[in-house]
Amino acid sequence: MKISDMNWFAVEDYLRRDDRAIIPLGSTEQHAYLSNSVDSILAEKVAVEAAEPTGVPVFPVLAYGITPYFTAYPGSVSLRAETYGRIITDMLDSLAGQGFRRFVFVNGHGGNSPGQTTALEWLNDHADCRIRWHNWWNAPKTFAKVQAIDPVASHASWMENFAWTRLPNIGMPSSQKPMSDLDKLKTMGSQAVKDYLGDGNFGGFYQRPDEEMQAIWDIAIDETRSLIENGWA
Questions:
Q1: Segment 147-157 mean pLDDT
Q2: Cα separation of 201 and 155, whole Å?
Q3: Can you list the positions of beta strands (E) in 28-177?
Q4: Measuring CA to CA, which residue among 132, 196, 223, 206 is closest to residue 167?
Q5: Mean pLDDT across the stretch 159-176?
Q6: Residue range 122-146, pLDDT digits in tens
Q7: CA distances for 24 relative to 2, 43, 136, angstroms
Q8: Please, are residues 224 and 16 in contact by the beta-carbon 8 Å criterion?
Q9: What are the tens digits of pLDDT across the range 198-227?
Q10: Long-range contact list for 169-176, CB < 8 A, 24+ apart?
């Protein structure tokens, strides 16, 4: 049940019987040979598919996030942490004012983590509300499946290469890229990051069989759905 497929009458009717809302969070940034919108595509798709049988509405993905380390890559857009925090707060204020009380942020980008702190700060002033922040790709069961398939997996590698994040007619290297020094990356500005990474893949194969990816996706959907449905008391 996507908010974009509802009018305000339908939302008002929903709020008479439920107070949950799902907010996907993404980013617009380089993902090597994959779409620049990988994080947004995946966060929204996992949220929609997980929520479908529950009837909980899913808001449009917030397609911009915090990614200062990739701004040297054309097409990448980074919000300041302060800006991002204000957006999170404004969204929560708007929805809580209408009667929503339980929020699931389905996050698809690690750089957005300051938003979780902002949400928790907001919660201190809204004791009647509940917030869950779900990094879907590294949730325990989902990430365990990734590691079981291939432990050399990271940003822009095979673990983000789904049929729905691939671009048509774009070939990819068949080799396994050595894993980058992630601690070193944290010490660099964006141009140095680009010079160090090259194509943008942090390390790992660029693609694995779709059957393996579907197995990961199925677990991600189940894990996200359980978070939407259970344990709110």
A1: 97
A2: 6
A3: 102-107, 130-135
A4: 206
A5: 96
A6: 999 999 999 999 999 999 999 999 9
A7: 11, 5, 10
A8: no
A9: 999 999 999 999 999 999 999 999 999 999
A10: 170/33, 171/33, 172/32, 172/33, 172/206, 172/207, 173/206, 174/205, 174/206, 175/205, 176/152, 176/204, 176/205
Query: Residue 151 class from Cβ within 10 Å (0-12 exposed, 13-18 middle, 19+ buried)?
Result: exposed
Place of tokens 């709110």: 232
User: What residue type is 137 in one-letter code?
Assistant: W
| Predicted confidence (pLDDT) at residue 233 exceeds the cutoff of 80 | no
Asked if residues 37 and 108 have their Cβ atoms less than 8 Å apart, the reply is no
Edge-to-edge strands of the sheet including 102-107? 20-25, 102-107, 130-135
| Separation of alpha carbons 57 and 59, rounded Å | 6
Q: Report the half-sphere exposure of 172 (CA within 13 A, side-chain side).
A: 23
Distance CA 32, CA 172 (A): 9
**Long-range contacts: 137-145, Cβ < 8 Å, 24+?**
137/42, 137/108, 137/220, 138/110, 139/220, 139/223, 139/224, 140/223, 141/219, 141/222, 141/223, 142/216, 142/219, 142/220, 142/223, 145/215, 145/216, 145/219
* Residue that is written with structure tokens 């449009």 in the block: 60
8 A C-beta contact, residue 32 and residue 200: yes
Q: Are 69 and 193 in contact (CB under 8 A)?
A: yes
Dist. CA 46–CA 217, nearest whole Å: 8
Token pair of 25, please? 């969070």
